[in-house]
Amino acid sequence: MVRPHRFTVNIETAADNRFQISHEDAGDLSPLVYAEITRAAALLREQGIVVHLFESEDRDAPDSVFPNNWFSTHAGGYVAIYPMKALSRRRERRSDIIDMLKSRYRVQEVIDYSGLEPDGLFLEGTGSMVLDHIDRVAYAARSERTDPIALEKFCAQFSFEPMVFSAKDSSGFDIYHTNVLMCVATDFAMIGLDMVTDLEIRCEIVHRLGRTGRRVIALTNTQIEKFAGNSIELLGADGRILALSTTALLALTTDQIDIIGESARLLPLAIPTVERAGGSVRCTIAGVHLTPRG
């Protein structure tokens, strides 16, 4: 996780992120975001989750609180670095974070896709892709930030099958990142099915998720707008946890909460100021799937 000291809503990304809220007349939001990330990290640690918390004082990297977009880690000792659409977001890539991973975990190879940026080929990490590690499927909603060619390169390297689809909000705009639309956990998956425009592909997604034995929880457009899809399953000291925002939890129905509760304990994190930037809990967490050094 990254705790920003100079948080602002990124004007550069506002054109295609309809989840962002205007920062005009909002004043300095940095102290609020600093406190929200501090508390979120503490709550995760209380559950036995190892949290590596980095600081960001770069005023020209307003989205540094969302590290999952620029790198991801994978079993077998692999780290991927991604091509980012916005110039400001490219500043988020940090060698000290990669160095920490190499020192604390067994890293065999770092694969850097950022060289695709001059060709306009973008793939913003586990924002652009929602990875099913059981069925080895990379779900990806088409957008200016998620290029199918870049996705194919990643999938070929990491042995995932790409499933690309179109997804639009109620106003007809492309969903900017797949991870605001869906969350794939061990025993369940949450997805805004109504936003998937192609009915045949919608059915295929449900089939693929269901054939692993998962229960598919259909989220409404309103629930997606409240970041219910932007959740992440983590492994705590006492079992699986679904980390989500308090905004997202309030949007879920009792039946949906019950289904999730059969598999994972819900852990709500209060990050309403962070959510003004158009992302929620899933976006703030870059998962570590590496083996610790002895």
TrEMBL record:
InterPro entries the record matches: Amdntrnsf_FN0238 (IPR014541)
One Pfam family recorded for the sequence: DDAH_eukar
Highest taxon, organism lineage: Bacteria
Protein name: Arginine deiminase-related protein
Species this protein is from: Mesorhizobium dulcispinae
